[in-house]
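Homework help board

Subject: predicted structure for assignment chain

Our instructor gave us this sequence and asked us to write out the predicted structure in token form, then describe one feature. I got the tokens but I'm not sure how to describe them. Can anyone check?
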Amino acid sequence: MLGAKDQTDFKLLRYFTTTSLVAFVVVAGLLGYVFRTLSINAMLGEYEGQHTNMARFLANEIWEHQFDTFILDTEAKTANEIKQMPQIPLINREMVLLLKGTSIFKVKLYNRQGMTVFSSDPKQIGIDKSSNPGVIGALRGRSASELTHRNSFSTFEGEVQNRDLVESYVPLYDPFSGKLIGVFEIYGDATQSVAYIGERQLFIVTTVVGLLALLYMVLFIIVQRAQNLINRQNLERERSQQALSESEERWKFALEGAGDGVWDRNMQTGEVVYSKRYREMYGFSDEDVDLLKEDWDSRVHPDDLKNVLAERQAYLTGQTRSYANERRMQCKDGSWKWVLSRGMVVARDAQGNPARMIGTHSDISERHKREEELRLAATVFDTVDEAVVITDMENRIVSVNPAFTTITGYQPGEVIGKDPKLLGSGMHSAEFYRDMWQQLTSTGAWHGEISNRHKNGKLYVEWLSIKKVSNRLGVSTHYVAVFSDITERKAAEERMQHLAHFDLLTGLANRTLFTDRLQQAVAKARRDKNNLALMFIDLDEFKPVNDGLGHHIGDLLLKEVANRLQECLRRESDTVGRLGGDEFVVILPEIEAAKDALNVADKILHTLNQPFDIAGHDIHISASIGIALFPEHGSDEKLLLKSADAAMYRAKEGGRNRLVLAE
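My token output:
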């Protein structure tokens, strides 16, 4: 029967385990909250990035429909006038096609006054959103996104939403002038994503609670068993004192002083005696484990237990001459510690069975941690896609990783001990490398683009980062260079840049590039007080060719027309562009008088009147040309283009195959 003190001790232990259970549940709840918060933030960031890219994509795709003019024109119109603008149905059709198959279910567009000038929901066009915080932030150049849960109030839109959604406000810039002209608002349906996060949160919390509850039960059982053993020890105090006296004699050897924990196990009864250092190693007090008939493997990590049992059995049966293994052992507080366990049988019974075994535990947690860090570092070094080069302070290569061979073509044996300059392409000046080393010496780091040469002689562009490495004393010992091959990415960027400014069929300047060059030419002519001519050229009888012989022949004809137009212009400052269909434009900057433009136009008419041999077809066409002069026919590029266009139509009405000077 337990005494009053024993009952108090047991009650305190029970309070401790109960408090631990409550702490476990709180930790599980906090873990679930942290997981959900991080997941929601990550999802919101991903949606904002997608919406920003989608906004740029939508703007680029519909720019050719006078998108910029449409937005700017709305600033001087009322809500009713905006709703009646003819561009809205066209933009809506384009938006429906572009958004098909995406998670975007609504797109809205605001001008600089915060007026809704376009929406996937036509009823919202013309609504003033100038007080909307998302619109205000985007008009100041800041993108913003908000997650609004189902049936919750949106602080951006000021209304209750019927689904989980992400609303993003993205500034819209004119790609030519770089000026802010409006704001995109994009709605992304995040219902499934939020639901998935909730499911994962519930699973994590449930799993953690279950595991911690199981750990609590084990802890409670261990505490209960320990308390029972302590009570039995009180009844056998005299025997314990005698055993303690005997055990103290056992630890009078050097192992204790060496920092190892010593254990002495009775193989027949299961009784085990531990040294002071052993108890300290695992966080036990003197009263916790002396003479405890502890299950030999109760504190061995489950993942290590199979190997421990096999090695012990091999030793006890004589298959091996020594017993030693590394394993993880559980401490009193539940944490795990890596130890080296060694032991030997010191006594056997009459039948030769092990009767007594003594051994030690050495704490190798720090060593194991360092080994794991080195192993992880080596794994990263060998598996990353970026090439890694390590040199000494004399700039001799001492190590490279597999990615280095993949990118450069050189095997490690071909470069170890050599200077990295063997990769040099000869494309950079001595000053370039001098500046690189100056920055590396002064700051300890350098990064940038650099051209190098593959082993096969092929040039490639890489993004290179170099850092100086120092030891614990602050002495520089090595340089570490990390680089990746960005050749394909650079080529793709150049291709995209070309496609953005040149007509895909003819290679002439497209509407975007033509508009930019016309703006520059007008600005220069105004500054230098020079004349400027703009021609608007429309092919006569092109539609019958296109309809009768097919679009393929029509495309070939347009390409040949483009070639002839370029042959008619010899100055580098002249520009030929294609606006679309069979419409071409020509910019003649810095002309002396109108007759210079008329002479060029006559040459173009004559050239286009010559027969075209297209895929075996003898094709005859002509052209109608309208000419406008700066500043007589327009003080800016828009008025100039409008005058040239009107002159071209008068040329067509006058019988075609002729040129007309603007009035």
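Reply (TA_rk): Your tokens look well-formed. For the description, you could write something like this. The CA atoms of residues 432 and 450 lie 10 Å apart. That's the kind of observation they're looking for.
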